[in-house]
């Protein structure tokens, strides 16, 4: 009986691939084994310039009212020297170091020591212990999904302090923004360097490590797939979500408090940025279990790209709109405010519904309804390294029939709304949409390259049925 069931299960697995299938994962998994010159050059440029870009943006707000051109003009005309700008830059302070240590320690405590209780009373929310995708070594990691709870506790405490306890000012983040930048950098570099050393000397799973032999590439893109300390402290889940994404909404609240302090009011643009980005952050935590199946967790290794990126790039550059609005408080006319709100909500709706449609389609193996109808799809097959043939389906209904990555399009519309809330006086708040367009277009091409080599001629059938990538009729 047991043998019969096992055989049946094995047959089903062949015909119904899942991300928890080791064979499947081997072919799709991970970053490159060999480094080409273009990748190496891009990585060296990023390692050199990404920290400078963050510094330049934050410094230009601190010293030049968020103008990106004035510092350059000053330097090029000899009006100022680099040393003048540097000498005006706030240094690391004991206060900032204390705040940052407390912040990270608090998030570690929430992550490690408070098991999720939200799934017990929030209908539809998936939390508690969940399984991730299989790693190349065939390991299925367990994760304690408690990000929503961490976010709620942190924000309840933030508001309790702001309105009742007054232990610290809600402008604390803005007031220490540059000293905190040094702390975030120290953590970002420390965790990336630790991950590199750990990958060499005491990896969580030696079979899940990739070495290219190129120091810079390995440092940037990571060696270990899922570095962990103990059974539960997972570097990717912790650093991707907290402290960076939990902080995102707190940083915005601190900017709003600063506006209130400086101008006696919070502008509608600041409220819009807080609300729209708040929805995006809450969506992330509501769907944290789904996030275990995205490219970040299923394919990327943990190196400087994720470690430093989560500690520095994300909290500092994803929040530029709010920072800008502290220096330039924009009050939008009603029509413009409604327009920005609608664009943001439409973007979010497309982003969420598209992701949900694929999730539902894949979870039910096509036995579901998309927009009230049975979904259409293209049958496809691929082979694993040992030659076993697997079958899968690519949906051509719903938003997946409009374009091959309409979830990215929704994300981009939402991102554009945050930027438009800031008006048109400066380019700085538009950095986000420029960056997201490059990131998601590159991601789309990267993903399609992978799907094309995985599905071969079936992918061609799919691209013939759904010819556009992001914008129907255009691209
Ligand atoms: P997707 O969720 O789009 O997943 C792509 C995979 O889905 C493909 O590799 C393929 O996998 C499968 N697939 C592709 N087409 C179809 C189809 N028609 N039917 C069924 N399955 C299909 O990619 P991401 O993980 O990159 O993105 C997840 C979300 O995260 C996106 O909404 C994105 O906007 C967002 N994001 C946000 C970022 C930010 O910084 N704010 C950064 C990155 C992403 P298979 O091999 O299984 O067939």
From TrEMBL:
As one GO molecular function, the record gives: 7-dehydrocholesterol reductase activity
Which reactions fall under this protein's catalytic activity? Answer: 7-dehydrodesmosterol + NADPH + H(+) = desmosterol + NADP(+); cholesterol + NADP(+) = 7-dehydrocholesterol + NADPH + H(+)
Q: Where in the cell is it found?
A: Endoplasmic reticulum membrane
**What pathway is this protein a component of?**
Steroid biosynthesis; cholesterol biosynthesis
Give the UniProt keywords, A-Z. Cholesterol biosynthesis, Cholesterol metabolism, Endoplasmic reticulum, Lipid biosynthesis, Lipid metabolism, Membrane, NADP, Oxidoreductase, Steroid biosynthesis, Steroid metabolism, Sterol biosynthesis, Sterol metabolism, Transmembrane, Transmembrane helix
| Source taxon at top rank | Eukaryota
GO cellular component annotations, sorted alphabetically?
Answer: endoplasmic reticulum membrane
Gene3D superfamilies according to UniProt: 1.20.120.1630
InterPro entries under this entry? Answer: ERG24_DHCR-like, Sterol_reductase_CS
* PROSITE patterns found in the cross-reference section: STEROL_REDUCT_1 (PS01017), STEROL_REDUCT_2 (PS01018)
Any transmembrane segments, and where? 37-58, 97-114, 148-165, 177-197, 262-282, 302-320, 332-351, 415-440
**Protein name, please?**
7-dehydrocholesterol reductase
Write down the EC number: 1.3.1.21
Keyword flag Endoplasmic reticulum:
yes
> What segments bear the compositional bias annotation Basic and acidic residues?
1-12
Gene Ontology terms: biological process: brassinosteroid biosynthetic process; cholesterol biosynthetic process
Q: What does this protein do?
A: Catalyzes the last step of the cholesterol synthesis pathway, which transforms cholesta-5,7-dien-3beta-ol (7-dehydrocholesterol,7-DHC) into cholesterol by reducing the C7-C8 double bond of its sterol core. Can also metabolize cholesta-5,7,24-trien-3beta-ol (7-dehydrodemosterol, 7-DHD) to desmosterol, which is then metabolized by the Delta(24)-sterol reductase (DHCR24) to cholesterol.
Name the segments for region: Disordered: 1-25
Record's bilayer topology term: Multi-pass membrane protein
Recorded family membership: Belongs to the ERG4/ERG24 family.
Species per Swiss-Prot/TrEMBL record: Onychorhynchus coronatus
